[in-house]
From TrEMBL:
It comes from the Bacteria. Catalyzes the reversible phosphorylation of S-methyl-5'-thioadenosine (MTA) to adenine and 5-methylthioribose-1-phosphate. Involved in the breakdown of MTA, a major by-product of polyamine biosynthesis. Responsible for the first step in the methionine salvage pathway after MTA has been generated from S-adenosylmethionine. Has broad substrate specificity with 6-aminopurine nucleosides as preferred substrates. It catalyses: S-methyl-5'-thioadenosine + phosphate = 5-(methylsulfanyl)-alpha-D-ribose 1-phosphate + adenine. Substrate binds at residues 186, 210-212. This is S-methyl-5'-thioadenosine phosphorylase. The keyword Transferase applies. Keywords: Glycosyltransferase, Purine salvage, Transferase. The lineage of its organism: Bacteria, Pseudomonadati, Pseudomonadota, Alphaproteobacteria, Rhodobacterales. It holds the Pfam family PNP_UDP_1.
Length: 290
């Protein structure tokens, strides 16, 4: 048994969470640079919590420039076991309406301008992301959402686009009709892949703000409308988060889906061929296996 430590990465509209006991903003240094901001540590219902605003307080980091590796490294370094990402998203489905939440379980990664791995030459590793989210953590998010009275959908494919512009109409229709995506955002990749490399359970809660641009009755996506929906969603997101500690508890059994053992057989570079400088940077994320 290990101690649960829940990390929450807050997306657009969520820059802090309330109600933490012994709340303290702490600076964490990582070999991958500075995280998006200081991290808010504390506890809720006896469970350790860490909150990180993905875009920084004041929304300073664009989706392409979010320091995804530093963020995940910092959460791992602080001893987090589970990561819940809470993100503003567009919807490709009539039934996934603005104000609804979706517990995402799959991704299509269309990002191309961000570092995507902690590993590389000097220490090569290949983890599986066939199932990129943790069903156990997804269960807790679903239950928390239902308990908070949120209209929640279990399962959905999140298309991660580079941004910062929204999609063209042709792209929006293609993602929806040909690719089968359910929601769209700009930040969950490479975040989810990095969480897997760091052996962290990861769940993604998509808070729907708009219908992107495909919907014949809703016109094109517009940031003013997004912001109006975002505020109500942020309150619901915080209500969901506040219910998680009781659901997850303090004592954490090994992940039944193996998220916390993802690196077990993933590193291919032989110990005597590993680059010491590269290995030093992996002290937190791969510390269990190197
Ligand atoms: C506010 S609209 C676009 C912006 O919102 C989402 O951010 P996050 O995923 O951090 O909630 C989306 O991915 C874009 O970055
Ligand atoms: N339609 C959309 N496309 C990309 N990111 C979003 N974030 C919120 N709505 C979005």
């Amino acid at each position: 048994m290990t101690q649960t430590k829940i990390a929450v990465i807050g997306g657009s509209g969520i820059y802090e969470i309330d109600g933490l006991q012994n709340a303290d903003w702490v600076q964490v240094q990582t070999p991958w640079g500075d995280p998006s901001d200081q991290l808010l540590t504390g506890s809720l219902d006896g469970v350790e919590m860490v909150f990180l605003p993905r875009h920084g307080r004041g929304h300073v980091h664009a989706p392409s420039d979010v320091p995804y590796r530093a963020n995940i490294d910092a959460l791992k370094r602080l001893g987090c076991t589970d990561v819940i990402s809470v993100s503003a998203c567009g919807s490709f489905r009539d039934e996934m309406a603005p104000g609804d939440f979706v517990i995402v379980d799959q991704f299509i990664d269309r990002t191309f301008a961000r570092p995507k791995s902690f590993f590389g030459s000097g220490c090569v590793a290949h983890v599986s992301v066939a199932h990129p989210t943790c069903p156990r953590l997804g269960d807790a998010c679903e239950e928390a959402a239902r308990d908070a009275g949120i209209n929640v959908h279990r399962g959905g494919t999140y298309l991660a686009m580079e941004g910062p512009q929204f999609s063209t109409l042709a792209e929006s229709k293609m993602y929806r009709e040909s690719w089968g995506a359910d929601v769209i955002g700009m930040t969950n990749m490479p975040e989810a892949k990095l969480a897997r490399e760091a052996e962290l359970c990861y769940a993604s809660v998509a808070m729907i703000t708009d219908y992107d641009s495909w919907h014949p009755d809703h016109g094109e996506v517009d940031v003013t409308a997004i912001i109006a929906t975002l505020m109500g969603n942020a309150d619901k997101g915080r209500a969901l988060v506040s219910r998680l500690p009781k659901l997850l508890g303090t004592d954490r059994a090994p992940c039944p889906h193996g998220c916390d053992r993802a690196l077990e057989y993933a590193i291919l570079t032989q110990p005597d061929a590993r680059d010491p400088e590269v290995m030093a940077k992996l002290d937190a994320v791969a510390g269990r296996v190197i």
